[in-house]
Amino acid sequence: MADARTQVLGRVRAALAGTAPDPEPVPAPAGARPGDVVAHFAERVADYRATVVRCAPADVGAAVAGALPAGARVVVPPGLPEEIRAALADPLVDDGLSAAELDRVDAVVTACRLAIAETGTIVLDHRPDQGRRVLTLVPDRHVCIVRADQVVADVPEAVGSLDPTRALTWISGPSATSDIELDRVEGVHGPRHLHVVVVEGAEPR
Amino acid sequence: MTGTFVGMPAFPAAARDALADTQLRHNLAHATATIRGKRAAVVGEVEHWEALRLAGAAVKERALHGLEDHLVRLEESLVARGAQVHWARDAAEANALVADVARRHGADEVVKVKSMATQEIGLNEALAAEGIAAWETDLAEMIVQLGDDLPSHILVPAIHRNRAEIREIFLRRMADVGRPAPADLTDEPAVLAAAAREHLREKFLRAKVGVSGANFAVADTGTLVVVESEGNGRMCLTLPEVLVTVVGIEKVVPTWAELDPLLRLLPRSSTGERMNPYTSTWTGVTPDDGPQEVHVVLLDNGRTRALADEVGRQALRCIRCSACLNVCPVYERVGGHAYGSVYPGPIGAILNPLLHGIGEGTGDPQSRSQVESLPYASSLCGACFEVCPVRIDIPEVLVHLRSKVVDAHRGDRVPKPEALAMRAAAHTLADAKRLGRAERLAGRVGRLVGRRGTTPRLPGPGAGWTDARDLPTPARESFRGWWRRTGGRLDGGENDG
Amino acid sequence: MVTCINDALFPGTGASVVRLLRRLGVDAEFPEAQTCCGQPMVNTGYLDEAVPLVRNYVDAFETYDAVVTPSGSCAGSVRHQHGMVARRAGDPGLERAVTGTSARVHELSEFLVDVLGVTDVGAYFPHRVTYHPTCHSLRMLGVGDRPRQLLEAVRGLRLTELPNAEECCGFGGTFAVKNSDTSVAMGADKARHVRSTGAEVLVAGDSSCLMHIGGLLSRQRSGVRVMHLADVLAATEDAP
């Protein structure tokens, strides 16, 4: 008997006999075009129960510190910009911490790859300023810094500028569930608190 | 409702039992009304929704029309990125592959992301038979698993349960399988969610093997996509050392860019959100981040049979959003269990017969008649097609599958009464003279048996009508008779209806 | 086209269509060769059995400019299912003929509003009315608010909103018998909504759906009458 691969592909071929393949990728309609993408983003993030703070570049440190409860144990990725790290009192720097170790940490502070205004989404591609995937998952509070120039209008722009060969995490508000009577409740396994610090007027990196 | 879908009665009988459960009907009506409202609001704010639906349908059509090429490319991309690719013709083969991975790592448990494909193949039961516990980590799946229940909705498998029932299940069962529910547990959804968080966290932290499905598999990059809300998916995809993903072959999307319309369509159609809280994508092994051994099982299990059906093929476009369930008046009243499958509702009514095949002599007579009853579990109202984000014309496929059921029985030695009735009706209706004679006869019979213009209780299948509804008697004079008598002259004696 | 249900069970509705169309100056005829569009067979899966009915339909109506029918469901069947039946028959001639006849069929409200361009048909109906948009007129044909426009122009008529109006009543052809429990559960909810409006009359554009909802309302002794849109539009002060 033929192996499973040969047989499945053979069945596919037989099922489609006489059907011409569609060679060209299918274009999708344009996404939303909000006038002020940054304001739109801030509004949409807040709509899904994230806390949003907009600030000038000079105030990032204070905004981040303000998002953390007093005495919180904080972890940061190794590549977090120095001016942000400097605002934190003795943060733990991730060097391959175990999940159990991360479970004893209260909060994580990261940058992001981009943000999507229409859906209020932050996308991480897990470069050194964002850290490994587990870093923004296990601690209960995630503080994420978004530069205004990182905000794109809608999903098509995001898909177009992301590198699919990197692991990606799209985050739209805190962890949530609709599994009880289809009513949305925030906070299950992922971080139950999402703070977004939007930095306006910063120089693009 | 416990155990298994195997041996379920045909839809009408299962529906009758479900309709008698008033708590179930209340839970369903509340939940589906909530989600319908949310969906309508977020779909309404998208300017080009119809164009987006067309694009989503076109992407999936393109994926299906070139499926062989896309699957081969997907495999190449995955292997190039360090993943191990396996192929499974059927459920047993897929289950054995997953069990083998777990066994090789000495795992006696796995943590699972919510996945329709693994439910379809009965993976949990197969792993249990090998001494491996599979922990469902999606809240609704966990409610179903703890309650020894069956899923009844694609998105919210525990939709048939209300908060009070969920609290009772947590209190009764959590202690048996891990951290107990707190004694002061209330039925507040937030409190119940917190209990699930505490209960599952120890399982996430110790698990060696994670098992998932995928919403999409991108052929040109080898990227897999999981769309979720709670973060349990991220836990399973990130914490274990080993990850096995079971992917139906129809999940292929040709290129990365073509994910775009689908990522815009799915959350709004499914949970009624602009975007779901978490979407994870990964491409093979990501060095020093997440599982360092990654397996992908490409699953057929009837999909190629569905693909061979030129009309039914479109069902494979389904992205499992469950919008069709939420708008279906039949689903809303009978719930998901009556469909006898992990795929309930309108999409289940077409997908199950397509995956299993109609008239191919497969299965025992009971499961055959169960599958054959599904295309009739619809009033063909069309609400499902209207909301489907990838434009699956479910009513069209239902009618097509009904014809396959009828055709499969054309050779029966003893024809069904329905077939005889349809043939007789068609014979009468094919000729106006025959119809006129039948109408005159019916008018006379109606006058004899009917009181006040209402037909008395009918025998046989007709009782299904007259048990609950009045039925008018045939008119004394048909329209045809009146026209013939008067030439349609309105002064020529009004017709008495 | 007078549907088979109207022909045998509700002939008055057919007469209303004739009266209404003639009042609007249309030369309306009833080709006696017509029988049934074949939808009951098609929707139950008996495609072979439907072939002679489709042939008969095509023969009966091929010479007319427009075919008007008081049924969204039958118009939908002609427009969307006859092609499928003709292809099944493997008869290219029938397929060509079907393309021609399918394009000329109009549900009554479509014909009045789109072809004749009228919304006020001069009707008088001094009653409190609620309107149920039937699934096939709503979703298969997309008649939109045409029936409402027509009803709103009827003198004396007070239109009240039907809650959950766009939800199916549960008729569904043979569904009403094959899945009678579910069908009745759907119809009971529809009847409850109808009663909640306080209307005297429930109006819809399909006699089959009305037969189902009306059968429940009658069994409940609700006192609510059901009437086809054509019967309301045909009513005048002289001939109520």
UniProtKB/TrEMBL annotation, chain A:
Residue ranges of domain LUD in the record: 101-199
Superkingdom in the source lineage: Bacteria
InterPro entries xrefs: FTHF_cligase-like_sf, LUD_dom, NagB/RpiA_transferase-like
Pfam family of the protein (one): LUD_dom
Entry-linked Gene3D superfamilies: NagB/RpiA/CoA transferase-like
Protein name in the entry: L-lactate dehydrogenase complex protein LldG
Origin species: Nocardioides thalensis
TrEMBL record, chain B:
Protein species of origin: Nocardioides thalensis
Domain Lactate utilization protein B C-terminal: 410-486
Methyltransferase found in the keyword field: no
GO BP term (any one): lactate metabolic process
Segments of this protein annotated with the region Disordered: 450-471
SUPFAM superfamilies, per database record: 4Fe-4S ferredoxins (SSF54862), NagB/RpiA/CoA transferase-like (SSF100950)
InterPro entries for this protein: 4Fe4S_Fe-S-bd (IPR017896), 4Fe4S_Fe_S_CS (IPR017900), FTHF_cligase-like_sf (IPR024185), Helical_ferredxn (IPR009051), LUD_dom (IPR003741), LutB/LldF (IPR004452), LutB_C (IPR024569), NagB/RpiA_transferase-like (IPR037171)
Top-level taxon of the source organism: Bacteria
Keyword list, A-Z: 4Fe-4S, Electron transport, Iron, Iron-sulfur, Metal-binding, Repeat, Transport
Entry protein name: L-lactate dehydrogenase complex protein LldF
Segments forming domain 4Fe-4S ferredoxin-type: 315-392
PANTHER family associated with the record: LACTATE UTILIZATION PROTEIN B
Domain LUD: 73-299
Molecular function GO terms recorded: 4 iron, 4 sulfur cluster binding; metal ion binding
